[in-house]
Amino acid sequence: MNKSEIIRNLSYRLSDMPTADVDRAVNLLLDLLGSTIAAGNRCEVRDFGVFSRHTHRARTGRNPRTGGAVDVPARYSVHFKPGKELRKRVDDAKGDFQIQD
After folding, report:
1. How far apart are CA 23 and CA 30, in angstroms?
2. Model's pTM, two decimal places?
3. How far apart, in whole angstroms, are the C-alpha atoms of residue 87 and residue 4?
4. What is the C-alpha separation between 11 and 20, in angstroms, rounded?
5. Tens digits of per-residue pLDDT, 38-92?
6. CA dist 10 to 2, 17, 20, 42, Å?
7. Alpha carbon 82 to chain centroid distance?
8. What GO molecular functions are on record for this protein (predicted)?
9. How far apart are alpha carbons 35 and 74 in whole angstroms?
10. Distances from the Cα of 24 to the Cαs of 5, 9, 33, 36, in angstroms?
11. CB-count exposure of residue 82 (10 Å: 0-12, 13-18, 19+)
């Protein structure tokens, strides 16, 4: 599901709310989430999970083509740890699909 599908789904469920307001609310929520994580703070959504910033230290990597050393700078990434309720819902749905060979 992408952002436009989320907005469409919420607009359908909140039929008394204009789609423009739903769009604005979703964008504000995502902006707040992004700026909170970028500032180095955690963002916890009860029963869903926790978003946090993970630090990757600088290291020396290898160029796979030449085998030469390459300096890889330090960077940040987003880490998500699902909450107990989300893990349970995903685990309970494991029988809802078939693996295709």
Report:
1. 11
2. 0.75
3. 25
4. 9
5. 999 999 999 999 999 999 999 999 999 999 999 999 999 999 999 999 999 988 8
6. 12, 9, 11, 25
7. 10
8. DNA binding; structural constituent of chromatin
9. 20
10. 14, 14, 14, 18
11. middle
The token duo for 26 is: 């979703």
- Please state the separation of Cα 67 from the chain's center in Å: 34
**Total length of the chain:** 101
Both tokens assigned to 5: 């599908």
The closest alpha carbon to 72, from 91, 86, 59, 53, belongs to 59
Sequence-distant (6+) residues with CB within 8 A of 57 are 74
